[in-house]
Amino acid sequence: MPGRNALFIPGPTNMPDEIRLAMDISLEDMRAPDFPGFTIQLLQDLKTIFKTRSGQVFVFPGTGTGGWEAAITNTLSPGDKVLAARFGQFSHLWIDLCQRHGLEVEIVDVEWGEGVPAARFGEILAGDTAQEIKAVLVCQNETATGVTSDVAAVRAAMDTAGHPAMLYVDGVSSIASIDFRMDEWGVDLAVSGSQKGFMLPTGLAIVAASQKALAAHKTAKCPRCFFDFSDMIRTNKDGYFPYTPATTLLRGLRVSIDMLLAEGLENVFARHHRLAEGVRKAVRAWGLDLCAKSPEWYSDTVSAICVPEGFDGNELARLAYHRYNLSLGLGLSKVAGKVFRIGHLGNLNDLMLLTAIAGSEMAMRDLGIPVELGTGVAAAQEHYRQTARPVDLKRAVAASM
């Protein structure tokens, strides 16, 4: 089909040309004497994205799942007890990974459409007088349901309970898109990936560890090799890696960080919120509901939209792809067929997102879902128009001449 695929899944996301061009280079010597001049500053600047001064950031070839495994295996031992909520496919998969590594997981099942129950976590931790729980796991943004959890509230519950467990955060679809404050929130392990807010291809697992986590690493007994922090610590200090790094992706990551910092992280977060609000207004105009049960859970990076009973959200996504070259997210696991998802994170602006809204409307009408064409688009247009940055047209024209 002519034209570019309209990519609106929650990752991988749209890649800016600046990043693509930065990676379109000849392969390089990863042990060259001048390579550390690039990597040392890169790792330092990543700390700014995670909002940590005292933590250490590791970059592994891999995905977010690899980042989960690195965080778990480097800081825990088989038989250790961890606390986690299950409220979507990705929080479930993180629990599964822990269990495969021989950890004992205390699972709090939550209705899909809600997030981590901070108060319930606090009660469990307060009752753990023997302090057997070694880690608390929080999926900051559950991509399957479009739910964002309050990490700060979980830290407050842990502090109120006076519990020494470490706090782990899956920030794969939130870091570099939704506010994340590693030091302020007392996060010990934070996991992200290159293909979402960082606007890169899939291929990098980015993990930040606190000093408490690095201390725990010294006694952790989970088997590890490829993801061992020790090997990274030994070589990263000199600007190198224990094995061949994904040098082209690192060059793209450099440009990604520069773009995020040039825009300003707070502006990045505000842009994502504004764009997400436009999608939410479109959903209301369609007369549909989000999977997220209430505004406190709404995600600014992905919206999971419930289809009316009798319709299949996955069939809708397939139709949109084949008829309009529009990629929407499928419903996963418990919500398979019940929702379709619009990813709205990374390199996006108003007009790009209006494409996803318009294409979704057409696909819904094609499938027989009774939405009125133009209603969602109009609601989003009005929101974007009213909240657009003011422009001094005369000054803008003069500057361009």
Can you offer a commentary on this structure?
The mean pLDDT is 97. The longest helix has 22 residues, at 265-286. Helices cover 42% and strands 15% of the residues. With 401 residues, it is α/β, with parallel strands linked by helices. It starts with 5 loop residues before the first strand and ends with a helix. It folds into two domains: 6-12 and 264-387, Aspartate Aminotransferase, domain 1; 17-262, Aspartate Aminotransferase, domain 2 (3-Layer(aba) Sandwich), CATH 3.40.640.10. Helix 2 packs across helix 9, helix 9 crosses helix 10 and helix 10 packs antiparallel against helix 13.
Keywords for this entry:
single chain, Aspartate Aminotransferase, domain 2, globular, 2 domains, alpha/beta, 401 residues, seven-stranded mixed β-sheet, 14 helices, two-stranded parallel sheet, Aspartate Aminotransferase, domain 1, 13 strands
